[in-house]
């Protein structure tokens, strides 16, 4: 079925089965945990931020392929970005997913140009009950950034 | 196998499609579908006799009261209660368990007392006792499950002493299907004078239930899990237990007299039914009981036993599929929880839904159990009298599709 193939893209299954940056950080870092109580999905993130730049990230979690792949892709995407850039990334992602209002940020002529692997998650939009799965890591990221800023 | 296929015509929703496929409804442990007899009973009440009950001298009120109390009598007969007075209606099984915990527990339990539960309890039979523990300092003690997913009774004698005041357990698990060992637990509780509370939310819809034979003190039930409407359920309680239990809600309907500073309560069961009750829902539940009695609860149980036997056999053919529950259909109910390879339960449910197959995924409101099983989430197919072996076949086909979607060999 076309929509199932769009939902469970190869790249999503790859991140689900081989999550990047899995683990925890030692030394100074911020730590945030997220939970979807209705489904039990869990996600946590450690960020090391130096001079306003995310220099390292580590994630842990358990849950469905969508939540865990979203977190894995996110952890790769935020390293090297300033905290402001990471927040921009989050808002771009949430616009792509229809979680926040705004124009679809993707460029249909250049797949992957705006959000890289994360664009594979756009298929989730057709499954409204699963959007919160994709969003869990991003709300956790925002918590971590808010902690750092506080 | 008992063929109940003809009953399906009574359930209008079973004729619909989901995502272009004929609906396969395998989530009856969450809520059951409703036969037209129940839907009509609710509609007819509103169309013909709608009025408030137990008050007013007019004809409609009298007719509504008769219908509401008639539903109570039907439930009493269904459960073989000694009297309809021993049936207390409430919003559902959860509310009933809270009534017992607060109305009886809070007024009779003290620090150091123990409540024995099992790890397979639904949150509704865990959290109310935790709330009471905060007020009273009681201890909660758990029986666990053995490797066959049966309640492990080996340590029961060591666990039961004079500190134990209540033994509360599920009559049938909504996750593993395990049937609670009522006889052993009632005997153990009685040996130290403890009360017995049975969570019958799954048991009552799926197996003949005789409260006098079980000989507990309380048994709670859920209307919407037994073909009835949502918003209705309740408890059976032994007369003397109900009489010594305090009301947990005050208001209209539940009083004999009200003064400025003190009031006297109405007799049971009205003492526990403050405010306007769910009248239409109770009448709908009465119709559901009529329906189940016409089919026969032995027939319902036999049908489920054979469909679960078929399902366990077919599921065994799916590679990397693990069922969490007793393998003997005689020892279990119709809830079949499973995992499939490394495919998360939510992903399984999403894929099955694309083929019109509705299953539940997650912790099933039984997190202590999923922790005990060391599996954070399972998919659950749960069966009822309207399910067929064809639907089991569709489930198995859907699971093979899930394997394909996740790049696993068929």
Helix and strand arrangement:
The complex is a heterodimer of chains A (150) and B (410).
Chain A: H1 2-7, H2 10-17, E1 30-36, E2 41-50, E3 53-62, H3 65-78, H4 83-96, H5 131-149
Antiparallel strand pairs in A: 1-2, 2-3
Helix pairs in contact in A: 2-3, 3-5, 4-5
Chain B: E1 17-18, E2 21-22, E3 24-25, H1 36-49, H2 59-78, E4 87-90, H3 93-108, E5 114-118, H4 127-136, E6 139-143, H5 156-159, E7 164-170, H6 182-191, E8 195-199, H7 203-206, H8 211-214, E9 218-222, E10 233-237, H9 239-244, E11 255-258, E12 263-265, H10 279-295, H11 297-315, E13 321-323, E14 335-340, H12 345-354, E15 357-358, E16 360-362, H13 367-372, E17 378-382, H14 389-405
Structural account:
- The complex is a heterodimer of chains A (150) and B (410).
- Chain A has 150 residues and is an alpha+beta fold.
- Chain A has a single domain (2-149), classed as Sufe protein. Chain: A (Alpha-Beta Complex), CATH 3.90.1010.
- Chain A has helices spanning 2-7, 10-17, 65-78, 83-96, 131-149, and strands at residues 30-36, 41-50, 53-62.
- Chain A has a three-stranded antiparallel β-sheet, covered by helices on one side.
- In chain A, a hairpin with a 2-residue loop joins strand 2 and strand 3.
- In chain A, helix 2 (10-17) packs across helix 3 (65-78) and helix 3 runs parallel beside helix 5 (131-149).
- Chain A is globular.
- Chain A starts with a helix and ends with a helix.
- The mean pLDDT of chain A is 93.
- Chain B is α/β, with parallel strands linked by helices and 410 residues long.
- Chain B folds into two domains: 5-30 and 296-405, Aspartate Aminotransferase, domain 1 (Alpha-Beta Complex), CATH 3.90.1150; 39-293, Aspartate Aminotransferase, domain 2, CATH 3.40.640.
- In chain B, 38% of the residues lie in helices and 17% in strands.
- Chain B has 14 helices and 17 strands.
- In chain B, the strands form five sheets. A seven-stranded mixed β-sheet of chain B has the order 4-10-9-8-7-5-6, with helices on both faces.
- In chain B, helix 4 (127-136) links the parallel strand 5 and strand 6.
- Chain B is globular and about 75 Å long.
- The mean pLDDT of chain B is 96.
- Chain A binds chain B through residues 1, 3-5, 7-8, 10, 13, 17, 38-42, 62-66, 127, 129-130, 133, and chain B through 342-347, 350-351, 354, 361-363, 367, 370, 376-377, 405-407.
């Amino acid at each position: 079925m076309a929509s199932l193939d769009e939902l469970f893209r190869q790249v999503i299954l790859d991140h689900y089965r081989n999550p990047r940056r899995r683990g925890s950080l030692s030394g100074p870092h911020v730590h945030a945990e997220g939970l979807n109580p209705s489904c039990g999905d869990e996600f946590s993130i450690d960020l090391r931020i130096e001079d306003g730049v995310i220099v390292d990230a580590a994630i842990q979690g358990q849950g469905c392929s969508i939540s865990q792949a979203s977190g894995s892709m996110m952890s790769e995407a935020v390293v090297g970005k300033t905290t402001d850039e990471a927040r921009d990334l989050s808002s771009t992602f949430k616009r792509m997913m229809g979680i926040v209002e705004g124009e679809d940020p993707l460029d249909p002529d250049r797949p992957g140009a705006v959000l890289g692997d994360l664009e594979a998650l756009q298929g989730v939009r057709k499954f409204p009950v699963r959007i919160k799965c994709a969003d869990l890591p991003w709300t956790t990221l925002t918590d971590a950034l808010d902690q750092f800023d506080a | 196998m008992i063929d109940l296929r003809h009953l399906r015509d009574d359930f209008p929703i079973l004729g619909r499609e989901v995502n272009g496929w004929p609906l396969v409804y395998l989530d009856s442990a969450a809520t059951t579908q409703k036969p037209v007899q129940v839907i009509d009973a609710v509609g007819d009440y509103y169309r013909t006799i709608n009025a408030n009950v137990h008050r007013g001298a007019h004809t409609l009120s009298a007719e509504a009261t008769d219908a509401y109390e008639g539903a109570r009598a039907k439930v009493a007969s269904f459960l073989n209660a000694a009297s309809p007075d021993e049936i207390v209606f409430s919003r559902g099984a959860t509310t009933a368990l809270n009534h017992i915990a607060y109305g009886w527990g809070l007024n009779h339990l003290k620090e150091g007392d123990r409540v024995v539960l099992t790890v397979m309890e639904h949150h509704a039979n865990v959290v109310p006792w935790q709330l009471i523990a905060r007020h009273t300092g009681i201890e909660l003690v758990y029986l666990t499950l053995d490797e066959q997913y049966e309640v492990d009774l080996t340590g029961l004698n060591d666990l039961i002493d004079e500190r134990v005041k209540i033994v509360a357990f599920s009559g049938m698990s909504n996750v593993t299907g395990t049937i609670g060992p009522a006889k052993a637990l009632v005997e153990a509780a009685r040996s130290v004078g403890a009360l017995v509370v049975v969570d019958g939310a799954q048991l009552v819809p799926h197996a003949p239930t005789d409260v006098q034979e079980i000989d507990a003190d309380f048994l709670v039930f859920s209307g919407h899990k037994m073909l009835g409407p949502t918003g209705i359920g309740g408890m059976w309680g032994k007369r003397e237990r109900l009489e010594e239990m305090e009301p947990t809600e005050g208001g209209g309907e539940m009083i004999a007299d009200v003064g400025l500073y003190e009031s006297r309560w109405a007799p049971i069961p009205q003492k526990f039914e403050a405010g306007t009750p769910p009248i239409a829902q109770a009448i709908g539940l009465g119709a559901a009981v009529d329906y189940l009695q016409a089919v026969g609860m032995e027939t319902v149980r036999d049908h489920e036993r054979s469909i679960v036997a078929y399902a366990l056999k077919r599921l065994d053919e799916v590679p990397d599929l693990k069922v969490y529950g007793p393998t003997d259909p005689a020892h279990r109910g119709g809830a079949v929880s499973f995992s499939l390879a490394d495919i998360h339960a939510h992903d399984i449910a999403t894929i099955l839904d694309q083929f019109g197959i509705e299953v539940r995924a997650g912790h099933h409101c039984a997190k202590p159990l999923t922790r005990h099983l060391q599996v954070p989430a399972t998919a659950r197919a749960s069966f009822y009298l309207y399910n067929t072996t064809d639907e089991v076949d569709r489930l198995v086909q859907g699971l093979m599709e899930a394997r394909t979607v996740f790049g696993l060999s068929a």
